[in-house]
Design brief:
It contains 7 helices and 7 strands. By secondary structure, it is an alpha/beta fold. The chain is globular.
Length: 266
């Protein structure tokens, strides 16, 4: 399933939820030479214990990197650290998973303040923007070095060089009338809609380098953010995400897709 992925893979927001499960399943399934860079805000903190245990379980395969996606200096430091470790290899896959939701769901208008809008935008949009921008030289290096035999003539794939932005169905402007009542979430919705535009812009910009950029809806997942009523476990969600990523090609660049590969309307 994720055997279609290899090389150097970086995932943000890995101390819990979907991010932790992504690193777990990737460590279990990807090829031996693959190296995983697992980013989180506080690698030594109690919330990262499960991630540290996972890294110990797969010695030499997982590097835990300190990264706060709302802090430009932290992003710069993480990029520098990863660049030194990767060397000439390049970065094959950047998964922008880290995200925040403020205030707590359902986050109605009455409870939402300017600071919530700004903080969520900074983490959910500006963070992925800066990461892709700063990692572009490493993504280009991977795209130039790698041209897998099994890509069926496609120039772009997650096996070669790609950016995956974790979006959401509730980012869809067209679908808002049918999803709004379940969770108003003004800051989260608007930030993910902006992330979709970022995906479209980067897709146009990066395709000249044969770098795939796609937004993915992981489903409604039972996490701290998704809540207990969510129908999907992190395991099932990530199984779908990895299955989708291993099949992405030129035709999927710049799209918002669910885990079955269906397009979600903007």
């Amino acid at each position: 399933m994720s055997g279609g992925l290899f090389g150097n893979i970086l995932v943000t927001g890995t101390s819990r939820g979907i991010g932790l499960e992504l690193v777990t399943q990737l460590a279990q399934q990807v090829e031996r030479e693959t190296h995983l860079y697992a980013c989180c805000r506080e690698p030594e903190g109690s919330r990262a214990q499960a991630l540290r245990d996972l890294a110990a379980q797969y010695p030499g395969k997982i590097s835990i990197i300190r990264l706060d996606t709302s802090d430009e200096d932290s992003i710069s430091a993480a990029v520098h650290t990863v660049s030194q470790q990767i060397g000439d290899g390049g970065l094959n896959l950047l998964i922008n998973n880290a995200a925040v939701n403020q205030p707590e769901s359902p986050a109605p208008l009455s409870a939402t303040e300017k600071k919530h809008m700004m903080e969520v935008y900074e983490t959910n949009v500006v963070g992925p923007f800066l990461l892709a921008k700063m990692f572009l030289p490493l993504l280009q290096r991977a795209a130039e070095k790698t041209s897998p035999d099994n890509d069926k003539g496609d120039k772009m794939s997650c096996r070669r060089s790609a950016v995956i932005n974790m979006s959401s169905m509730i980012s869809s402007i067209e679908m808002c009338p049918e999803t709004f009542s379940m969770a108003q979430m003004y800051p989260y919705r608007t930030s993910k809609a902006a992330l979709n535009m970022l995906t479209r812009c980067q897709a146009e910009d990066f395709k000249t380098h044969n770098i795939l950029v796609t937004a993915v809806h992981p489903g409604w997942v039972r996490t701290d953010m998704g809540g207990e009523r969510a129908p999907l476990t992190t395991r099932d969600s990530v199984l779908g995400i990895l299955r989708l990523m291993s099949s992405l090609s030129d035709k999927d660049c710049g799209k918002l897709l669910d885990c079955q590969g269906n397009s979600i309307p903007w």
